[in-house]
Amino acid sequence: MSTTAESSTDPAGKAGCEPALYRRVILKLSGEMLKGDEAFGIDQPAVQFIADEIRSIHELGVEVGVVIGGGNIFRGSSDAARNMKRAVADQVGMLATVINALMLQDALELMGTKTRVMTALPMANIAEVYIRRRAERHMEKGRVVIFAAGTGNPFFTTDSAAALRANELDADAVLKGTKVDGIYTADPAKDPTARFLPTCTYERAIKENLKVMDAAALALCRDNSMPIVVYKLSPGNTRRVVVDGDIGTKVTKE
Q1: I need a labelling partner for 164 at 20 to 30 A (CA). Which of 145, 192, 196, 228 fits?
Q2: What is the pTM of this model?
Q3: pLDDT digits over 100-139, tens only?
Q4: What is the CATH number of domain 24-252?
Q5: Domain ranges of the chain
Q6: What are the residues facing 129 on neighbouring strands?
């Protein structure tokens, strides 16, 4: 698995001006990132912003897969699901991720970026069912692949889906765009003594419950030495992670 990749052209044939640190990445986004400043739902400027961030690394020649959550619409562990069976609530949450994926696909396609939405649940009239080798082929052809419906199984989060897809597709890293600039020893909004961690091990993240990803996702990345970069999803930062690698927190074995 390559950890560096310099591209002279992007998938559209335009000259690339900067070398990328990664050949292929899986970008993990929570559904909340699509609601912007709204209480819930989808905010079009937020979708446009995220599409711009994705395009900014795609144009470098980086092969990009995106795993999107659905928490802006419905979350299986939310109050709205209090009286539901967990398996059913999680299935509703999976459908919410499909809505988000289609919105993001539309924004990217309007920019001229070719995409495919692939779902873990069959829904042939809307998107392709996920097949690993087909997903690889799409990415090799320069298409942004948006993975929806999580793993297709209840009780597994979209964090686990991102870890799974990254390892299945031989990605170089999982990039997790969040509302904070990396991992802290505690919640910086609640604890003024919280310290920023430029690096972190999988074991520490699991043991101290540092809210990087859920434990299952962290364990999967740990067992397969898949790096995770947690960074603040603000303008230009996704490109900066891919080109400079000087922001956010990198989670590795050492």
Answers
A1: 196
A2: 0.90
A3: 999 999 999 999 999 999 999 999 999 999 999 999 999 9
A4: 3.40.1160.10
A5: 24-252
A6: 119
